[in-house]
Design a protein that fits this description.
Elements (H helix, E strand, L loop, with lengths): L1 H9 L14 H132 L6 H39 L1
Length: 202
């Protein structure tokens, strides 16, 4: 009996060895647990993460789009500002040119009006002077005619009542006065010329 036990101890019974290629119960449990974990992650964890990442990407895209739009608006505003500056310069130049032309036209118009007014005043003055001269000559003629008629009537001893006779007498008297005045002017001219000629001889 003892020898049999010792023989059994020397020759142990061979144990069944496991093959890793053949799944066992532990593998199926681990696989089931892994599937549950994957399901939970895909159901409750991954979608919020994906949504958050998608929202973040959309926000970044929107920010870039807003930035590009702002840059485009800034460039457009700058171009409009430059265009407005150019338009303002052209408008100012046109206004200055128009003002210069209007000033020249107003100056020419005022000059023409002043010349016309001066010519009108001169013509009016000349006409007034001529009228006064004619009036003075006529008054002088009348006075001289009256004086000449009176003197002639006294000298001749007859009254010159006839208008035609009086007119002829006045004309003769005035002609005589003009001849006398002309002779006096000639004598004065000769008297002025004699000293000069005498000085030249001396």
């Amino acid at each position: 009996m003892t020898s049999e036990l010792s023989g059994l101890a020397r020759d142990p019974v061979p144990m069944a060895t496991s093959n890793f290629l053949v799944p066992n119960g532990t593998f199926w449990v681990e696989l089931f647990a892994f599937a549950i974990i994957v399901y939970i992650l895909g159901r409750y964890v991954v979608p919020p993460i994906n949504k958050a990442m998608t929202d973040r990407q959309n926000a970044i895209r929107k920010e870039f789009a807003d930035l590009e739009e702002a840059e485009a608006d800034a460039r457009e505003a700058e171009q409009r500002y430059k265009d407005l500056q150019n338009d303002a310069r052209h408008e100012a130049a046109r206004i200055r040119e128009d003002a210069r032309e209007q000033g020249a036209a107003i100056k020419a118009e005022l000059t023409a009006q002043a010349r016309e007014e001066a010519d009108r005043i001169l013509k009016h003055g000349r006409a007034q002077l001529e009228a006064e001269r004619s009036q003075a000559v006529q008054s002088l003629r009348n006075e001289l005619g009256t004086m000449a008629t009176t003197l002639a009537g006294r000298i001749v001893g007859e009254a010159l009542e006839d208008d035609e006779r009086r007119s002829r007498t006045v004309e003769r008297f005035i002609a005589a006065l003009e001849e006398e005045s002309g002779s006096q002017d000639g004598s004065e001219t000769g008297s002025h010329a004699e000293p000069s000629s005498t000085s030249g001889v001396s």
